[in-house]
Write a structure and sequence with these properties.
Blueprint lengths: L9 E6 L2 E6 L4 E5 L7 E5 L3 E4 L7 H4 L6 E7 L3 E6 L5 E5 H10 L2 E3 L6 E6 L1 H5 L12 E7 L5 E7 L10 E5 L8 H19 L3
Antiparallel strand pairs: 1-2, 2-3, 3-4, 5-6, 5-9, 6-7, 7-8, 10-11, 11-12, 12-13
Amino acid sequence: MNRENFNQTVVVQTIDGVDALVNTDPGEVFIDLPASNPRYIRVREGDHIQEGDVRTRTPAEMSGPRLTKWRIESISTETVTGTNANTGETREWERDWLVQRLGAGEFSAELTTFDRVSVTEIDEWRERHSVEEIDEVKPYVIAIAYGNNGEKFTSLYAATEAGDWDSLELVQQDESVQNFSGALRERFDEAVHRTLEVEQRYH
């Protein structure tokens, strides 16, 4: 479920062959990619971006010296200014040019927030897995947290009783979540738990 409130000026732009909603306001770049493969990218002033696609490269590759990292200093309606994290060099990009590169994965945003979380009851999940793959048949819930860098992170919860969302316990989670820093993990858990609490009201 999308819990985000939009108060942005947006236009439709074609990115990597597909239409996306892109904000045009100063202060941040926001790219809302299509529902067929839902993801979003958000970069604010003070955030970092890096060359390379975080969705296809390993953490070791992304931390290597060949992929330049930039701190975003300013975002106007026309341009974005960044500072090279290693050399201090300042560069100015056309905003539309950078939007295209972020959307296509030539640049990646640093993961800082999880503004969207969707929750699905698990009848669909159970249909895709054999009974042997789970310890016992009981209600399951999948929470997918979408990061501002275009990645998504899945958590599987089980309830001890049908319809009892108060009893949800984490049983499986993407391994990458375990490698989050303490602060990032706290923001992740808060975003997921907040959405689970909202969903619980409807069950």
